[in-house]
Protein 1
Amino acid sequence: MSADAQKSAASKRLFWIGWGVTILPLLVLIASGGAKLSQSESVIKSFDHLGWPPGLLLPLATIELTCIALYLNPRTAPLGAILLTGYLGGATATHVRLGEWDAVAPVVVGVLLWLGLFLRDSRIRTLIPIRMNL
């Protein structure tokens, strides 16, 4: 097998591993945005506990789902990842302010989003040159 063919096969493998890593955090975020759109009583209670007014459910759901759409588009995926990082930073800060261990969850989601993007997008690997023996 030629060097170019090996590189292409490795790149395809990284691409699919990247999508595998990306699926879980995306499902979490889509469920979160959908829950906010539902404006169910449990979501409103959760928002009240966090100190957020229920009137922010729709705007936050719109922001979250728009960032997800940007992240899913290969051309805008880096922008989507940056915006989702900011969004998840707000979630982390909210939980830290309340002294809750739930603050770890948005950090893990963000790390998995970036890891998935790193693995499937060579532009990110160029920007963040981590040596890998894959």
Note: Residues 42 and 72 are 28 Å apart (CA to CA).
Protein 2
Amino acid sequence: MNALKDLANHAASRRIRGRSYKRNSLLKPLDIILDELDRCPDTKNEEELELVWTGSKGLIFDHVKRIAKGVHEEDIYRYVDLFREKFFEQSQHRNANRILQRERLIRSAYLVYMREALAEIFVVRGKAKNPQEAMQRIEVAEARDEDPEEDE
């Protein structure tokens, strides 16, 4: 599932997430897209899908802007475009029902990819010696409901 992994890598590197490293916080941008796709009355209608993609960009931007600093609007727009182009269109062949039926599995896989990407970022930035140590720091931050990147 390279498309989902690419999406999580983009989100991790651009801080497109909620305020903390808790599960719901990391999943919030993806959840916004999935919720809007689920509410779409006709996923075969191009105009309806365009509304989903454009609306998701605005909703994610509004959410992230309220809680994070240094996140750029174009990075959020690219995040939604990656979901649409690589995951929805290429990987899932524009089948919204297939995505929504497997939503729980998709969210779980995305979360694993997101945590792996965050661990790699920690190692690269010298905040951990190896991915295992980075994962431990992420778990501690999640339990304490804090953001280990706040000091940046």
Note: The first helix runs from residue 2 to 14.
Protein 3
Amino acid sequence: MNAVKRCFQIDSRDNVATLLEDAEQGPVEVLGATRGGIEIAEPIEMGHKVALQAIAEGALVMKYGVPIGIAARAILRGEWVHLHNCRSQVDQRSSAFDPHSGAATDAVYE
């Protein structure tokens, strides 16, 4: 029997929540500031963020009640929010990082 996976929303202004365990596509319980449920669109690893609502391209990604980045493209409710669809407000290179390793994809190695 598979228990419903969980994520945690820190502040009611947050449009993302953090997964408390690895989760496959399907239902996830939202704990914290807002309680309820969400269907995640893809597998998301523990510690990573899921969009609690649609986030428009260029809109702020909110966590801890403060902006932590900008949506680099439209993000759907239930999608994984990470380096592939979120960029830094201060580091323009952040959108060129590999989402799994964090390595800069624009670096030339010889």
Note: The radius of gyration is 14 Å.
